[in-house]
Amino acid sequence: MKEWTREERYRRLKDPQELWAMHEEISKSDYRQAFHIQAITGLINDPNGFVWHDNKWHLFYQWCPWGAVHGLKYWYHIVSKDLVTWKNLGVCIMPDREYDNYGAYSGSAMPIGDSLYLYYTGNHRDPDWTRHAYTCLAKLRDDGWTEKYPLPLFGTNPDYTEHQRDPKIVYKKELGRYFIVLGAQTKDKRGCAIIYSSDDLLHGWNFAGELKVPGFEHFGDMWECPSIEHIGGKDVLLFCPQHLKIEGRGGTFNHNGYILGEMDWASLTFNPAGRFHILDRGFDSYAAECANNVQDPDKAVLIAWMGQPDVSYPTDEENWSGCLTLPRELTIRGRRLIQQPLPELKQLRDEEFNLQNYHPGDVEKLPRVSEVELYCRPGDLKMDLFTKEDGTGGFQIHYSEMTHDICIDRSHMTRRINPEAGESRVRNLPQGLQHLRIFIDRSSVEIFVNDGDVVFTSRVFPVTDEAYFTMYGDAFLRMWKLKPAVQDTLVV
């Protein structure tokens, strides 16, 4: 594994030609995705500025161009008409000011008129490497040019540690006020969110206070990517508590989840109506962001980084790492968030395989870019993906009718990922298993259980002989090849 010097990690991109040879080599990788957003080179992590504006979806992501390393971060810009096919537009925010001299970090977007306002964390470092976080503003004009405001909106609040980042911009029409929700850490190392407010999108931001969440005063030592969404008449607090042990999450200490409840903006209190729920039960999902300006009040659209902090992947040696999840449609069913694949994804279906003669236990070739759908009848079910030709090994999905538990296990793959964090995940299904919808890309698996009641997202890196699947159980099985949807074009 390459050891990166500070100079290499924070090298500045001066000319797109610096990336051409790297991009050409990376494009040959067997693990480059076909229908998931991925960086043209280097590392992608948090999705940022997700918003509907000017009759299209805008999405930005944190990007370090030089390799699979967290170094100098840029905001890279992509757009879509349908949340399925995406077009690269290039770098939108560069770390080129004193207040963001060591990175343009995560944030959000708010459309006003013909312009799109981008709120982000400027990561500043003093010569002695002391960190200072600034909440910064840039305007993306309708002609595609980005203008940064000359000064940050505000700097680090001295009552908290330097860990203050990921501004989420919110407008409450009934109050006539804008709010910025930031992830933060108290001086005694407690995770929290802090809030600033203003009656003007561009000026007059003042510290309003710390978000109060009764019962969650000691829940991790840092909260990243907080947001408060209103879906179907209910409020949802989404955030990523760090360095916290949660039952059923193996050795993973960084989580992405949510609490349903009621937000009182006057007192800055989020009153929980239940416990903290893990957003995605798989191995690789973090930093989820909901889109701003979604037109349907009963739904939200969410996308996340298909990765985890402090985890390495096999493509690190190929100078690239990471991708984003499929966008999901969020609704509320009972006391839970439901995540479902977008209806538009069906347009990716190409050839459907003839599985009329498939019998449980048969071993068949598995297309590397495909969708699998199972309608399940009562009883145990075993579906193993990426097995060897004799049906052994692979990524295992097993359901027990006796316990009503569904388990995923990737410990039998040749290339194992982050085994110290645990290689299996279990979720109980009180109503049993009725339906599975599985999206397979060249290095990922996303499993939607019972129409979005549970989701498992995982990176997988099959080797040449892991090219088959087998299934045991009473289920009606369908499978399609999927068309590519993301242009892997070098645009800087």
Rough shape?
Answer: globular
Count of helical stretches: 2
Count every beta strand, where a strand is a DSSP E run of 2 or more residues. 32
Largest sheet: 10 strands, antiparallel
Amount of beta strand? over 45%
Task: Give the number of domains.
Answer: 2
CATH architecture level-2 label of the largest domain: 5 Propeller
Termini Cα gap: 27 Å
Oligomeric organization of the protein chains: single chain
Structural summary, described in words:
The protein is mainly β and 492 residues long. The chain has two domains: 6-343, Glycosyl hydrolase domain, family 43 (Tachylectin-2, Chain A), CATH 2.115.10; 346-482, Exo-inulinase, domain 1 (Jelly Rolls), CATH 2.60.120. It is 3% helix and 49% strand. The protein contains two helices and 32 strands. It has helices spanning 6-9, 17-26, and strands at residues 42-53, 56-64, 74-80, 87-93, 104-112, 115-125, 131-140, 146-148, 160-172, 177-186, 191-198, 206-210, 223-231, 234-241, 257-264, 269-272, 277-278, 286-290, 300-305, 320-321, 328-333, 336-341, 349-352, 363-365, 370-387, 394-400, 405-412, 424-428, 435-441, 444-449, 454-459, 468-482. The strands form six sheets. Strands 23, 24, 25, 26, 27, 28, 29, 30, 31 and 32 form a ten-stranded antiparallel sheet that branches. The longest helix has 10 residues, at 17-26. It is globular and about 65 Å long.
